[in-house]
């Protein structure tokens, strides 16, 4: 039986709350453009949450050595972590900026640390669920306040970005002729908030049915939709349908509504700036893959993006391809694609009971890159892997 209030448990609870806070220190600046801005994807910033994760892991090991806790080796998670770490480290050989690629390995280690801590029972699953859901409810409430005020609410010390209808670069939507901001919480983008809250919604489905769990689901649901992430909404709906979390009649109705909306909006979607931008990055990614099938190195996609673009890119256009499968293959090589595909197939077959978590992120990964390009996205991926493997 795990003793109460072990130091690693306390720090784990704090860490789960801190992960959404975009608090970091930039230790290595990326390449500068002529305009004076720099390539953020070639920079290295150490996040407060990553420091806490590593310290939690250290305390966990100390407690094992001092016999204050016992745990069994989780061979699956160790093997998966070894493969991911090996492929990431190997890619550094092919990197142009080996310093940036090597430092990016720290983000991968942080994500794998969360995975391993979960599967080696840093604490009881029920505690992790409670702490994580409480943190996500807080983020959802922040997003609701941001939508109501149409502004940031003064939590910049927790990493809340400066957002508002007139602030450039902020994710917005047009509704009935009005420009509205999307909910951010303390994340750097609304899409990342939606990814975290989507996982929270799936996690909340296992809560006992009472007023508390109902309130939790409602708050998470409101925050999730106020992030207005089309990819996350579609991914969550499909996940709920495919994993039979909804009654069959409701599933068929929602699927019909989703298909109808996509058909009606097809023309607008195919001509939208967002779609055309994604197609541009898709072309760059495929051209890069054809010439550099062994990968360009961890975090190095944007270092080579101009070499494969037929137009001169502006600094703000230096972004990874909006698809984690292509991005991973571009950076880690074609062998990584095989490992990723094999890993997903194995997980879908072996861990059917908890497949909803990873299916949700797998669908989001078709349309966005943050799960592999941003530290908080990598941490979310590590956490979801841990939740998927923990309960089997």
Strand order, main sheet: write it out.
1-2
Distance between the termini: 19 Å
State the total count of DSSP E strands.
Answer: 4
Class by SSE composition: mainly alpha
Uncertain segments:
none
- Envelope shape: globular
Helix proportion: 55-70%
Secondary structure: elements and pairs:
Blueprint: H1 7-18, E1 24-28, E2 44-47, H2 48-65, H3 75-91, H4 98-119, H5 125-149, E3 172-175, E4 178-181, H6 190-204, H7 211-226, H8 230-242, H9 248-264, H10 266-271, H11 273-291, H12 301-304, H13 324-332, H14 334-350, H15 355-364, H16 370-373, H17 375-390
Antiparallel strand pairs: 1-2, 3-4
Helix pairs in contact: 1-2, 1-5, 2-4, 3-4, 4-17, 5-6, 5-7, 6-7, 6-8, 6-15, 6-17, 8-9, 8-15, 11-13, 13-14, 15-17
Could you characterize the architecture of this molecule?
Helix content is 61%, strand content 4%. With 392 residues, it is mostly helical. The strands form two sheets. The chain has a two-stranded antiparallel sheet. A hairpin with a 2-residue loop joins strand 3 and strand 4. The longest helix is centred in the middle third of the chain and has 25 residues, at 125-149. It is globular.
Key phrases:
single chain, 392 residues, mainly alpha, two-stranded antiparallel ribbon, two-stranded antiparallel sheet, 4 strands
How would you sum up this structure in a few lines?
The protein is mainly alpha-helical and 392 residues long. It has helices spanning 7-18, 48-65, 75-91, 98-119, 125-149, 190-204, 211-226, 230-242, 248-264, 266-271, 273-291, 301-304, 324-332, 334-350, 355-364, 370-373, 375-390, and strands at residues 24-28, 44-47, 172-175, 178-181. The model has no long low-confidence stretch (mean pLDDT 90).
């Amino acid at each position: 039986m795990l003793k109460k209030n072990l130091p690693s448990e306390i720090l784990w609870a704090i860490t789960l709350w801190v992960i959404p806070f975009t608090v970091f220190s930039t230790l290595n600046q990326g390449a500068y453009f002529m305009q004076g801005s720099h390539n953020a994807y070639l920079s290295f910033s150490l996040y407060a949450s990553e420091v806490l994760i590593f310290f939690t892991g250290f305390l966990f090991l100390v407690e094992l050595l001092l016999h204050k806790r016992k745990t069994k080796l989780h061979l699956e998670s160790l093997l998966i972590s070894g493969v991911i770490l090996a492929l990431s480290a190997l890619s550094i050989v092919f990197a142009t900026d080996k310093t940036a690629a090597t430092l990016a390995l720290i983000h991968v280690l942080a994500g794998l640390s969360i995975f391993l801590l979960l599967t080696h029972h840093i604490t009881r699953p029920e505690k992790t669920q409670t702490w994580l859901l409480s943190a996500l409810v807080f983020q959802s409430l922040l997003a609701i306040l941001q939508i109501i005020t149409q502004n940031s609410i003064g939590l910049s010390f927790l990493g809340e970005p400066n957002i508002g209808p007139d602030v450039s670069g902020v994710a917005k939507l047009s509704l009935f002729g009005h420009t509205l901001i999307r909910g951010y919480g303390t994340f750097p983008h609304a899409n990342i908030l939606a990814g975290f809250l989507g996982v929270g919604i799936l996690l909340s489905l296992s809560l006992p049915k009472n007023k508390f769990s109902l309130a939790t689901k409602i708050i998470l649901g409101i925050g999730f939709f106020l992030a207005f992430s089309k990819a996350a909404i579609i991914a969550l709906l499909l996940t709920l349908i495919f994993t039979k979390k909804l009654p069959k009649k409701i599933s068929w109705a929602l699927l019909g509504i989703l298909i109808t909306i996509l058909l009606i909006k097809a023309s607008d979607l195919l001509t939208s700036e967002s779609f055309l931008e994604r197609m541009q990055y898709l072309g760059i990614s495929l051209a890069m893959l054809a010439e550099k099938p062994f990968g360009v190195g961890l975090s190095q996609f944007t270092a080579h993006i101009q070499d494969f673009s037929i137009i001169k890119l502006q600094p703000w256009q230096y972004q990874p391809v909006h698809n984690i499968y292509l991005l991973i293959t571009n950076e880690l090589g074609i062998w990584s694609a095989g490992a990723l595909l094999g890993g997903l197939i194995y997980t879908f077959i072996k861990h059917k009971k908890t497949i909803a978590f990873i299916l949700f992120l797998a669908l989001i990964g078709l349309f966005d890159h943050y799960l592999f390009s941003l530290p908080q996205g990598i941490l979310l991926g590590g956490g979801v892997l841990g939740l998927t493997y923990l309960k089997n």
